TrEMBL record:
One MF term in the entry's GO annotations: hydrolase activity
Residues in Serine aminopeptidase S33 domain copies: 77-313
Protein transport is among the record's keywords: no
Highest taxon of source: Bacteria
Lineage, broadest ranks: Bacteria, Bacillati, Actinomycetota, Actinomycetes, Mycobacteriales
UniProt cross-references to PANTHER family, sorted A to Z: PHOSPHOLIPASE-RELATED (PTHR11614)
Gene3D superfamilies: alpha/beta hydrolase
Annotated protein name in UniProt: Alpha/beta hydrolase family protein
UniProt source species: Corynebacterium urogenitale
UniProt keyword annotations, A-Z: Hydrolase
Keyword rRNA processing part of the UniProt annotation: no
Length: 362
């Protein structure tokens, strides 16, 4: 059983962006985490599930080695995962801790450590529900640390972008409100291969935008046809063709089935983002591979040196809708999660990010 802070009485029944939280990570008790020495986790209870499953929670993972005497004086980093994912990138935490940051990972509702019996893994019908998870985590961090920079990967990149944009908009509307307080402490956004465009072919795009929304309303229990290609997972995990030994219960090689209502929510969020009416309002960095390679065959060299999930060209095309002054970095031979690429590629990605943080955050 993990350590718990219950926010259900304060933030679950109203907008996640208009209730201040006084608790900080200093007040939380972190239990030993599966990532090992220096890592701890704490459940943040979020209350009722808008999708009418069991009560939801998110999990904050903290990397705090014993020798970190200046820990709460450090800028905070919050790492937000993507679809069928969870926080396991301990090498990223160690890298940035060594450079003077306080690193936290977030497992969002129904994902990773946060999943509960009776819940559909990774399922939300509206991506904006995640605003509450990110707000709760960012608030308890900034109540102890001077600032926080939010990292978002894949779907998490879309979610972090939209969350920061809604936070900025709310802070403009209510400059004395808690939204303004939190946005003022949001030092930056780092987007790791964000889901900014529908990567499908024309026929599937037509289904996703014109047919699935109606089918999802008629039958919310309909599963997405065809399943999701397991090639990426197999190229990453040490049991197959990769080097990463993560928890396959929390991040299976073959992503769990998804419902039409889940994809409909993603499509709505992408369309909102592409409308051009959103902006993070803070320094923003986008990292992506130089190419994509979609294949359902065997793992090849192209699988190991390309984004096999999304199209980096779409990320670059729409990047300035996240922030007109976004910094875009194209990483040769990077995979979908650039920090899980081959050693020389990920070391380059980490170094570039550290340099950017030094210039924009510290």
């Amino acid at each position: 059983m993990g350590w718990v802070t219950n926010f259900s009485s304060t933030i679950s029944s109203i907008s996640p962006l208009n209730t201040p939280l006084s608790v900080s990570v200093k007040d939380l008790e972190f239990g030993p985490d599966q990532l090992g020495e220096g890592f701890g986790f704490h459940y943040l209870e979020l209350g009722k599930d808008p999708d009418k499953q069991s009560p939801v929670r998110c999990t904050l993972v903290q990397y705090k080695p014993d020798n970190a005497t200046d820990f709460y004086d450090r800028p905070g980093l919050l790492l937000v995962h993507g679809m069928t994912d969870y926080f396991f990138q301990d090498h990223v935490a160690r890298y940035f801790h060594a450079r003077g940051y306080a690193v936290y990972g977030l497992d969002m509702r129904k994902c990773g450590r946060s999943w509960r019996e009776g819940q559909t893994w990774h399922h939300v019908t509206d991506q904006s529900f995640y605003d509450l998870d990110i707000t709760a985590a960012a608030t308890v961090i900034t109540n102890a640390h001077p600032t926080v920079t939010a990292f978002g990967h894949s779907t998490g990149g879309l979610n972090v972008t939209m969350w920061a944009s809604r936070l900025r908009r709310a802070s403009v509307d209510m400059p004395e409100g808690p939204e303004a307080v939190l946005h003022a402490k949001l030092a930056g956004v780092v987007l790791n291969s964000p889901w900014f465009g529908l990567q499908f072919g024309a026929a599937t795009r037509f289904l996703a935008t014109r047919v699935f929304p109606t089918l999802g309303k008629l039958n919310p229990s309909l599963l997405l046809p065809g399943g999701i290609n397991p090639l990426y997972g197999k190229s990453l995990h040490a049991s197959e063709d990769g080097e990463w030994d993560y928890n396959l219960e929390l991040k299976p090689l073959t992503p769990r089935p998804k419902y039409l209502t889940w994809l409909n929510g993603v499509v709505r969020s992408i369309r909102e983002f592409q409308s051009g009416h959103y902006c993070t309002g803070v320094p923003t960095l986008l990292l992506a591979s130089d190419k994509h390679h979609f294949s359902k065959g065997k793992i090849t060299e192209a699988t190991r040196t390309s984004d096999v999930i999304l199209k980096p060209s779409q990320m670059r095309e729409h990047a300035r809708k996240a922030n007109p002054d976004v910094d875009i970095v194209v990483l040769k031979d990077a995979v979908h999660d650039v920090f899980l690429s081959r050693r020389h590629v990920r070391e380059h990605a980490l170094a570039i990010t550290a340099e950017w943080l030094e210039e924009n955050v510290k």
